[in-house]
Amino acid sequence: MLKRLFREEKGFTLIELLIVMLILGILAAVAVPRFIDMRDDAQASACRAARQSMETAIEQYLYYWALDDGTGTMDDPSGFSSTSDWATALSTTFTTRGQSIQLLKSAPECPGKGTYTVNSNHSVTCSDH
């Protein structure tokens, strides 16, 4: 009677458990690098968006500078020698033709901790992406 009870009892064999563990290991080996790549891709995308935002703000600043009749509080962009000059100018409220304008609430930052550089043709590059 007791032997019959143990024979009817169904369970997983050691081989079946090892196969399941092997499959889970393979899935983990494939999935983990993809999640890491997704994080890097998201940071690169956010960096690209921040650079484009800064480039657009620079274009707007140059537009307002061209329209300024000398009565505003804008700094001359030809005197900007560094990226921090641009970051300050874009995030500071200035007046031109009687309007108060702030192009960016704050200077954009790279999520990967890279630094932005504005070159002579006003395009923005990142040291990280």
Number of helices: 3
- Secondary-structure-based class equals mainly alpha
Measured between the Cα atoms of the first and last residue, the distance is 72 Å
Strand percent estimate = 5-15%
What string, H for helix and E for strand, traces the elements in order? HHHEEEE
Strand tally is: 4
Shape: rod-shaped
Tally of individual domains:
1
Instruction: Flag low-confidence runs.
Output: none
Cross-sheet strand order for the largest sheet? 1-2
Rg computed from alpha carbons, rounded to a whole number of angstroms? 29 Å
Main sheet overview: 2 strands, antiparallel
Overall average pLDDT: 85
Question: Fraction of residues in helices?
Answer: 40-55%
What does the model show?
By secondary structure, the protein is mainly α. It has one domain (20-69, 80-127). Helices cover 54% and strands 9% of the residues. It has three helices and four strands; from the N terminus they run αααββββ. It has a two-stranded antiparallel ribbon. The chain has a two-stranded antiparallel ribbon with strand order 3-4. A hairpin with a 2-residue loop joins strand 1 and strand 2 (99-101). The model has no long low-confidence stretch (mean pLDDT 85).
